[in-house]
Amino acid sequence: MSGEGRLAFGRLRSAGLRAGRGAIGQNVGRAGVTLALAFVVLAAGAGYWQVYRAQELSTAPDDPAVVAAARNVVRGRILDRTGAVLASSKKDSNGEPYRTYTDPSMSPVIGYASRQFGTAGLEHTYDGQLAGVVSADPIQQLLSKFRADPNDPQDLTLSLSLKLQKAAEKALGNDKGAVVMLDPRTGEVLTLVSAPTFDASPIANPSTSQKAFDTLRQDKDKPLLNRAIQGLYVPGSTFKIVTSIAALSSGAITTDTSYPQQPKAEKTGLLVSGYRVRDGHHPFTDDRALKFPEAVEVSCNIYFALTGLRTGGQKLADWAGKLGFGHPIPFDLTTETSQVTNGGGKFGGGFKDDVEVANAAYGQAEVLATPLQMALVASTIANDGVLMKPHLALSFSSARNGTHTVAPEQLADVTSPDVAGEIKSAMERAVEGNFGEIFTPGAAVPGIPTAGKTGTAQLGSGEPHSWFIGFAPVDQPRVVIAVIVENAGHGASRAAPMAGDLMKLYFDTFGR
Amino acid sequence: MSAASAQSRPALPSIDFSSIRPRPRWRELWLLLLVGIALSVGSVSLGATERVQAGKALSFSPAQSQPLLAYLGALLLANLAQVLAGRRTDQVLLPAVGLLGGISLLLMERLPQNLVSQSIGGMTLGLGQVQLLWLLLAVAIITVLAIVVRSDAWLRLYKYTWAAVGIALLVLTFVRGEDVNGARLVLRLGPLSGQPTELLKVIVVVFLAGYLSEFRPLLVEQDSRIGPLRLPPVPYLAPMVGMVAIALGIVVFQRDLGAALLFFLVFLLLLYVATARSAYVILGLLLFVAGSYLMYRLFPVVQSRVDVWIDPFRDASGSGYQIVQALHAFARGGILGTGLGAGLPMVGGRPPIPEVHTDFPFAALGEELGLVGVLAILGVYLVVIERGLRIAAAAADDFRALLAAGLALVVGVQAFIIAAGNLKLVPLTGITLPLISYGGSSILANAVVVGLLLALSDKGVEPPPPPRVGGRLAGLRSRLVQSGR
Question: Which of A90, A161, A356, B97 is the most buried (most CB within 10 A)?
Answer without folding.
Answer: B97
